[in-house]
Every structure is written in structure tokens, then in C-alpha cells.
Write a structure and sequence with these properties.
Layout (H helix, E strand, L loop, with lengths): L6 E6 L8 H10 L3 E6 L9 H8 L3 E2 L11 H8 L2 E7 L1 H8 L6 H8 L4 E5 L3 H5 L1 H12 L3 E2 L3 E4 L5 E5 L3 H14 L7 E5 L5 E2 L5 E2 L6 H12 L3 E5 L4 H11 L5 E4 L6 E3 L19 E3 L3 H8 L5 E8 L3 H11 L4 E6 L11 E8 L6 E7 H14 L1
Length: 383
């Protein structure tokens, strides 16, 4: 497989399987990859820096920061690599990563790494079966990490069972797949709407909502990173957004309607500022805005995908399903905006993704919207 011009960061943790990683390095370099190795403090007890330097023709990174680099290693190494592979990954390091602990260079690198991470665990079979270890593995998977599960066999401790590092050929193959898969949207054009609309009352005031547009922007960035041509729409009013969507959607493969569009607008907005008067009350007559999703469905062509969003404060799944069916969508993403930690304006979100057949409901607990965006796009691809 061709890996020319690909930069791979290879993390090695303290475990007897560390010596096997030398074979993985040979395969990666033979395929054309540029490999840099980072070791946990204990990994050097199992494989030497000299061996790894000789194989990679690159420096080996530990917790000793280079005095010649102006940029911290956990940032510079993370920025330049296309993929981070951790093999073998010990239970200790897996636990640290899953809980955001950054007490060495490798765990700090993972925290700063915003591209694909593959983890190949290796440990005693009883450790692998430990419920806390499995919980940490699930946390990594839910966050978008790729787990290359260990195999069954004879372990260094004398036991037989699951926990043996996956075969080097298998890890190499998965590495190649991930470097290709991460461009899974290449050749696709995706239309994404973001933010709330502002329906004018007069030149000064408007009716709007608290949507920040962060989720839509995160989706646009993730889709672009996955190779898609992205059209991001942030319109002033619902009617403006309708016009923009209807113009762009026919040439797109997918519409992700993440914007929070105002349901109503002022029937007759004032061209001049409405002055405060002695009246204790003021009455505004509101009229319904066009439903952009319904209009998009009307012009949808075979093969096009429409994804709706709904912000709810109660009965999240039930309300999402009702909207999914009523608007004849392919998918819907529901988020609970009653929680201030994941509601409007927050950098975090918690969502439930539902498909048209209601067969693959995926619930994602609170995490950064950048990570939520990746999970949503991969879910759409899978389903």
C-alpha cells in the first residue's frame, strides 16, 4: 500500500509487546511513510531509543523536550502528523487518555491531536476484561478513536486469553485504511447551514434566538477536513436562508440544516426605529416563516441526503422522530438545549442521531462540538 508523503506518529507504551512495533515501523517505512516515535517513560525498558532511531531515521521523542525547538513538542508533533498510532497501548495509558490526563509527552500529544488516532491495546487478559478498562475503551470509541482489538493467544504472563497485541500486519492494514478513509467525503459537495436568523422589528431590533452557529461551523470544518467541498450558509433572515439553500442545494450531495431558523417574523417591520412611547405595551403581529426543510425536500433528487436538526427541552427523541417523519428527512440530530453546559452558545453538545427507519439511534454524551461533528459525519457515512 502506498503511504508516500504520509506522516505517522507512533506511540509506544510500557509493555512486553513494545518490541513488536519495530516490525510495524519497517512496514510503514517500506510503504513510504515518514514515522516519528514517541515513548512513554516506561516504554524504553522494552525497546531502545537507538533501535527506533535507526529504523525511522528520525529523533525519538520522550519526556525530554528539545532545547533547540521553539515550539513545544506536543504541539509541533501533533500539527505535522496525519495519523497517530499507539501500539502497544497499555491499560494505564488508555485510562489516562480516556480521562484527559496529560502527565507525559504521549498523553499530552493525544490531547492536542485533532486528527485520527488508532489504539492497539495489549495487556493481561484479566486486565483487558476489567470493567474499568472496558469503560475507558468505550469512551475512546465514542469519542472517535479507532480501536484495534487485541487477539487471543499465549500471553507473556503465562495466561491464555484476549489481550495479545493485534498482528503487525493487521495494524499496518488498519493504518493504511484510516489514512484513506479520512478522505471519505472527497468528491462530495455538502451544504451546511449555521447560526440563528434575525427577523427585523425595525433597523435596531430583531426577533431571534440564542444559536451561536458553533455546531454548524464545526460540521463545516470537519467535512472539509474529510475531503468534501463545503458550502456554509449563515443568512440574516429565514427568507434569505431559504433563497440561499434553494440556490445551492440542487448541486449538492447533502444538506445539513444545523441552523436555528426563526419560526415567525414580524408581519410588517418598520423602516425607522420605533420610538419608546408612554404605552406600557406594544403589539407585534407575527407571521409564519417558510419551512426551509420542507421546501428542500420538494426539490430533492434521488441520491441526495437531507439532515435536520432540532433543539428540544423535553421529550427529545419523541419530538425528533415526529419532526423526522413530518418533514420526510433522511436523518435528524436532536440536542437538549435545556442543559446550559450543552445548550446554545456552549462549546459542548450532547446529541441523539436518528435515521429514517429508526433502526440506528445513536446517543452521544457531552463532548466538544468539534468531536460531535466528526461523529455525526461518520454516522451518516456508516448508515
Amino acid at each position: 500500500m502506498e503511504l508516500r508523503n504520509k506522516k505517522i506518529l507512533l506511540g509506544i507504551t510500557g509493555g512486553i509487546a513494545a518490541y513488536k512495533t519495530c516490525g510495524l515501523i519497517r512496514l510503514l517505512i517500506k510503504a513510504g511513510a515518514d514515522v516519528k516515535v514517541v515513548l512513554t517513560p516506561n516504554a524504553g525498558n522494552f525497546v531502545t531509543e537507538t533501535t527506533l532511531r535507526t529504523l525511522t531515521k528520525n529523533p525519538v521523542y520522550t519526556d525530554r523536550f528539545s532545547e533547540f525547538e521553539w515550539k513545544p513538542e506536543h504541539i509541533s508533533l501533533a500539527d505535522e502528523a496525519d495519523l497517530f498510532v499507539i501500539a502497544p497501548a497499555s491499560a494505564n495509558t488508555i485510562g489516562k487518555i480516556a480521562n484527559g490526563i496529560c502527565d507525559n509527552l504521549l498523553t499530552s500529544l493525544v490531547a492536542a491531536f485533532d486528527k485520527p488516532v488508532a489504539v492497539a491495546p495489549a495487556m493481561n487478559c484479566k486486565m483487558w476484561g476489567n470493567k474499568f478498562v472496558q469503560k475507558n475503551i468505550s469512551t475512546l470509541e465514542e469519542t472517535g478513536f479507532y480501536i484495534i482489538n487485541p487477539e487471543q493467544g499465549s500471553l507473556a504472563c503465562g495466561y491464555e486469553g484476549d489481550g495479545r497485541l493485534a498482528g503487525i500486519d493487521k495494524i499496518f492494514k488498519k493504518t493504511c485504511e484510516l489514512l484513506q478513509e479520512e478522505q471519505f467525503l472527497k468528491g462530495k459537495k455538502i451544504l451546511i447551514t449555521a447560526g440563528g436568523t434575525k427577523e427585523p422589528i425595525d433597523p435596531v431590533r430583531y426577533i431571534g434566538n440564542r444559536s451561536s452557529g458553533k455546531m454548524g461551523t464545526a460540521l463545516a470544518n470537519a467535512a472539509a477536513n474529510y475531503g468534501a467541498e463545503v458550502c456554509l450558509i449563515r443568512s440574516e433572515t429565514a427568507r434569505d436562508m431559504l433563497e440561499d439553500v434553494m440556490r445551492e442545494f440542487p448541486s449538492c450531495d447533502m444538506l445539513i440544516m444545523a441552523a436555528a431558523v426563526a419560526d415567525y417574523r414580524v408581519k410588517e417591520s418598520s423602516g425607522t426605529k420605533i420610538k419608546k412611547q408612554d404605552k406600557e405595551e406594544i403589539t407585534l403581529e407575527l407571521v409564519k416563516n417558510p419551512d426551509i426543510l420542507l421546501e428542500a425536500v420538494k426539490i430533492k433528487s434521488p441520491g441526495q441526503i437531507i439532515v435536520g436538526f432540532c433543539a428540544e427541552t423535553e421529550s427529545i427523541v419523541e419530538n425528533a422522530l415526529e419532526k423526522l417523519r413530518r418533514k420526510n428527512l433522511d436523518f435528524i440530530v436532536a440536542n437538549d438545549v435545556s442543559d446550559p453546559e450543552t445548550g446554545f452558545g456552549s462549546d459542548y453538545n450532547a446529541v441523539t442521531i436518528i435515521d429514517r427507519e429508526n433502526k440506528n439511534i445513536k446517543t452521544v454524551d457531552k463532548m466538544h462540538k468539534n468531536d460531535i461533528a466528526k461523529i455525526i459525519l461518520k454516522y451518516l457515512l456508516k448508515n
